[in-house]
Amino acid sequence: MSELAYLTVADGAARLRAKTLSPVEWTRALLARIDATGGIYDAFLLVMAEAALAAAKRAEAEIMRGDYRGGMHGVPYAAKDIFDVPGLATTCHSKLRADHRAAGEATAIRRLREAGAVLIGKLALHEFAIGGPAFDLPWPPARNPWTRDCHPGGSSSGSGAALALGMVPAALGTDTGGSVRNPATCCGVVGLKPTYGAVSRAGVFPLAFSLDHVGPMTRTVEDNAILYQAIAGYDPADPTSARREVPDCLGAIKRGVKGLRVGVIEHFYKEDTQGDPEQVAAIDAAVATLRALGAEVKPLRLAPLADWRECNRVILQAEAYAVHQRDLQERPEDYAAITRAKLLAGAFIPASEYIKAQQWRTYLARQFAEAMRDCDVAVTLSSLDPPCRIDDADAITRTYERQCRSAFNVTGTPAIAVPTGFTRDGVPLGMQIVGKAFDEPMVFRAAHAFCAATGLTERRPPVADALPERAVA
Amino acid sequence: MIAESELRLIAEQRGLARALALEPAVLNPIAERGIKPLPPVPSGPTTEPAGGYDPARHAEDA
């Protein structure tokens, strides 16, 4: 295996800047890895080898002449196939969009292009970011790199898988009810759902506009902060974009958690519902680690988990149905069965329920803000269960709603998923670290301290070293 | 609780007969929870729905 497969953004950027690594060399190494393993884990829907090498050569020339643009310059990355890239289909992993051609460019893609990053391809997802792993679509579902028979999480499934397999050091995902954090948890990588409005949604196919977030996915917390800094910021093309300066997320990232007040939202997984024993044991150990690092740990009580989940569900289903109504009427056969069933549920939500859910949202978001006055960050589980088998539809349905992520789509506040360990079978476990609105720097700081202490972000799937590689000319 | 036949009628009126024929089971959980109404919003300082309309935004963006 090329040592470049698991090179981090931070280390790679340092070598690129020092001119001891070429963006072309890095891109070629990753293309070779993707070429050799693409058909095994199905993380990519499209590999853009020619365009990626051209972009890498441009970046190389710019860096060689001293025109270095920053932490993403010359860094390869991939995007969930829900972001518009001019001239390419934004398929959303759906037959309905196979013939689509994007005229415009998603703001996040444009910002990364302007930062000199190298787009290497487009990644698998759950159809329209709402389905599930489906075998009745034009492309197969992405697989879990730790155990191929397991669900890699979704909907940004290809993003999680590609990172864990060492195919890219950075990827873009989207998160409406947990779709960045779920695959991050299942694949043992790091995924941030930023504050609503912090990263532009322009040029991203919507699922539910008031809950949709664009989020960075990486293998380390520091890399996540680098990618976040590159894509965040006000964008007039997104009417919900926040007119705020992007804070410095890297300056304080290594300050540790000594003295930080950490709330533990334990009732979500110990009272409101019972988390899987291995998930609970892992987060208990994580909380003990934070305490040992000097954090002041205390319980944090919010409304019961079901209130958050139902609020998210009603808003998500109603808004998603509004997006898909016409296609459900005219081309229902072209959806995967799992997507169709999920979207159809939105047809039966009365306007009064949608309004009530938005009232609940006001109530819950205010409650969270008040509870967080005495905390710098809070922690809770991500998934209540470890990943199930990818071909067990009942288990997928049963476990999909057993999660604590959608609460933070309701609040719109930042939440990062980080690994907490592994099951006896070697499948990743994880938790969330959540913060106050627009306080991504604090979330990164706590997450970095935890991950540095545990070393869990340095673990690779057992298959990582065994995968074959081919040369790319 | 809403009867499944009523839901079927609503779906047909909304042009979803074909979609429903492909996913007949989708009505079961929906009927089971009677479109599961949310509980009343707890009393608080405001009951204003989230995502308020801001007319000034249009002028700023124009």
Keyword list:
heterodimer, A: 473 residues, alpha/beta, eleven-stranded mixed sheet, B: 62 residues, 47% helix
Structure explained in plain terms:
The complex is a heterodimer of chains A (473) and B (62). Chain A has 15 helices and 11 strands. By secondary structure, chain A is α/β, with parallel strands linked by helices. An 11-stranded mixed beta sheet of chain A has the order 1-3-2-4-6-5-10-11-9-7-8, with helices on both faces. The mean pLDDT of chain A is 96. Chain B is an all-alpha fold and 62 residues long. The interface between A and B is medium-sized, with 33 and 32 residues.
Largest beta-sheet details of chain B = none
The whole-angstrom Rg of chain A is 20 Å
Work out the number of β strands of chain A: 11
Helices of chain A, by number, come to 15
Q: CA-to-CA gap between the ends of chain B? A: 47 Å
Unreliable spans of chain B are: none
In short:
The complex is a heterodimer of chains A (473) and B (62). Chain A is of the alpha/beta class and 473 residues long. Chain A has helices spanning 9-17, 23-41, 49-64, 107-114, 157-164, 181-187, 221-231, 267-270, 277-292, 305-330, 337-344, 351-371, 393-400, 407-411, 440-454; strands spanning 44-47, 76-80, 118-123, 170-175, 190-193, 213-218, 261-264, 296-299, 377-381, 415-422, 428-434.
Q: Helices, strands, pairings?
A:
The complex is a heterodimer of chains A (473) and B (62).
Chain A: H1 9-17, H2 23-41, E1 44-47, H3 49-64, E2 76-80, H4 107-114, E3 118-123, H5 157-164, E4 170-175, H6 181-187, E5 190-193, E6 213-218, H7 221-231, E7 261-264, H8 267-270, H9 277-292, E8 296-299, H10 305-330, H11 337-344, H12 351-371, E9 377-381, H13 393-400, H14 407-411, E10 415-422, E11 428-434, H15 440-454
Parallel strand pairs in A: 2-3, 2-4, 7-8, 7-9
Antiparallel strand pairs in A: 1-3, 4-6, 5-6, 5-10, 9-11, 10-11
Helix pairs in contact in A: 2-3, 5-6, 7-15, 10-11, 10-12
Chain B: H1 4-13, H2 17-22, H3 27-32, H4 55-61
